[in-house]
Design a protein that fits this description.
about 450 residues, alpha/beta, three-stranded antiparallel beta sheet, globular
């Protein structure tokens, strides 16, 4: 293992940490090796590694095995004692401001999530109860801004992208920022950083104060993909499903850039929701875009959707190649339609209550070898449910690629097996092979990719 520079420091939140009660801080400070403490330690380590090109949770944890976090209660908030922390998070002994901000955001979300689960008003056995829980988590993070016209554009795409694709995402973000639109991403590198960087410059040109760069993540992902430093609002949701629901409830439109299995997972989740009969008339602008060199990839993804889910699914989004201005204009027009629709139905701008999400999309999918093998990938399944099952398949591959638990399962039991009809498996296999050939599974410069799956027809 390569030796990495470390430091020991004491860090306090700026002002008071009013989002945590005294009881919550006391519980965490005495947690020791509890699951809450372990989770926070893992997320804190990832945040302190912001800027490092590591996308493997197991590698990060092994590189800083001696890292510790001790939580101390103070009258005006909470103080963190960091032992053997990554030295790159500090400048002349002072923690970088964005890192400090995200560190305490992680503390806020992880402790609040744990305490809320035991509250009588939390009902995770029903679809509406889960949506209410997502709402409470976002409200506690002060993400919801009532009364503001629809202006939050979610950008999805890969971290393992080419320089040209990254620059293109910046250009799109710049055009969005010139139109005073805000950006929400998964908060990591690559496409999750590019649009934010472009929008930051555009907001400065427009003298926009308070531009929002919202990053939504979950513990398993943040451990492998540290937040990029442009994020000024970090929210850690409890799991992938609640993170995905947060995207579609808070975002007013979505732009999908080139990516890998994680992007495909998000795309299929979104299509599964939009294909539900109750959402047929609900405006939700979706644009699939990339630079000219990415046109074959975008066409392949478009063809995969047509081959598996049909033309109705293809009609729920636009494909725009190499034209950031057109992307931004179309998205801006779509957001105006969203505003009109919600006014007519008296729905909130800050949280999309009218969007119907089936309960099957909301419960966490545990990618065990048995669950992956038992996914129903057949034309006999309704299109919106098939999209959900395909999403689970991609979710399992993401887990096997970058998440500590998934990596260890693959090491112990071998690759996942994905079974289904030939009409579904053949285009799936072709798409996954293309991801590998185009190096969309890992960051460039890493070791050769070894598939954590096997497609079986």
């Amino acid at each position: 293992m390569i030796s990495r520079p470390v430091t020991t420091a004491s860090v306090s939140a700026r002002g008071s940490l009013e989002t945590l009660s005294q009881r919550e801080m006391h519980q965490l400070s005495e947690a020791g090796a509890s699951s809450v403490y372990t989770l926070f330690r893992q997320c804190a380590l990832a945040i302190l590694n912001t800027g490092a090109h590591i996308d493997n949770a197991k590698t990060i944890l092994e590189a800083y095995e001696d890292f510790e976090v001790r939580i101390h209660q103070q009258d005006r908030g909470v103080r963190l004692e960091l032992i053997n922390a990554p030295a790159d998070a500090f400048v002349d002994g002072e923690m970088i401001a964005s890192t400090r901000e995200m560190l305490f955001s992680a503390l806020r979300d992880i402790v609040y999530t744990g305490s809320e689960l035991g509250a009588p008003r939390i009902d995770l056995s029903s679809s509406q109860g889960i949506t209410d829980y997502v709402f409470h988590l976002l409200r506690n993070a002060r993400t919801l801004r009532p009364g503001v016209e629809p202006n939050m554009v979610v950008c999805w795409g890969g971290h393992s992208i080419s320089s040209e694709e990254y620059q293109y995402s910046k250009r799109v973000g710049h055009e969005l920022g010139l139109r005073n639109l805000n950006i929400c991403t998964g908060c990591g590198p690559g496409v999750m950083k590019g649009p934010m960087k472009g929008a930051t410059i555009a907001h400065a040109k427009q003298r926009l104060i308070g531009g929002r760069y919202l990053g939504l993540t979950e513990p398993g992902i943040i451990a492998a993909e540290a937040p990029n430093p442009i994020v000024n609002e970090l929210v850690i949701m409890p799991d992938i499903e609640k993170r995905l629901e947060a995207f579609v409830r808070v975002g007013h439109g979505i732009i999908i850039f080139p990516g890998g299995v994680g992007t495909a997972e998000e795309f299929l989740y979104l299509l599964g929701i939009l294909l539900h009969p109750d959402n047929q008339d609900l405006p939700f602008p979706v644009i699939l875009t990339g630079p000219r060199d990415a046109a074959p990839y975008l066409q392949q993804l478009h063809n995969f959707v047509g081959a598996t889910l049909g033309s109705d699914a293809q009609s729920r989004y636009q494909v725009i190649i190499d034209d950031p201005v057109a992307v931004s204009r179309q998205m801006n027009a779509g957001l105006k339609e969203v505003g009109r629709f919600r006014r007519e139905r008296n729905d909130a701008f800050h949280f999309n209550w009218l969007l119907k999400i089936d309960e099957g999309f909301q419960h966490p999918f545990d990618p065990t070898h048995e669950n992956m093998a038992n996914l129903k990938l057949s034309r006999d399944v309704p299109a919106h449910q098939l999209a959900a099952n395909l999403r689970c398949a991609f979710s399992g591959i993401v887990s096997g690629n970058v998440k500590d638990k998934g990596i260890r399962r693959i090491e112990q039991f071998g690759p996942y097996e994905i079974h289904g009809d030939t009409a579904i498996m053949q285009p799936l296999d072709e798409l996954l092979k293309a991801f590998v050939e185009q190096h969309r599974m890992k960051l460039p410069g890493g070791r050769p990719y070894e598939p954590c799956y096997r497609v079986v027809t």
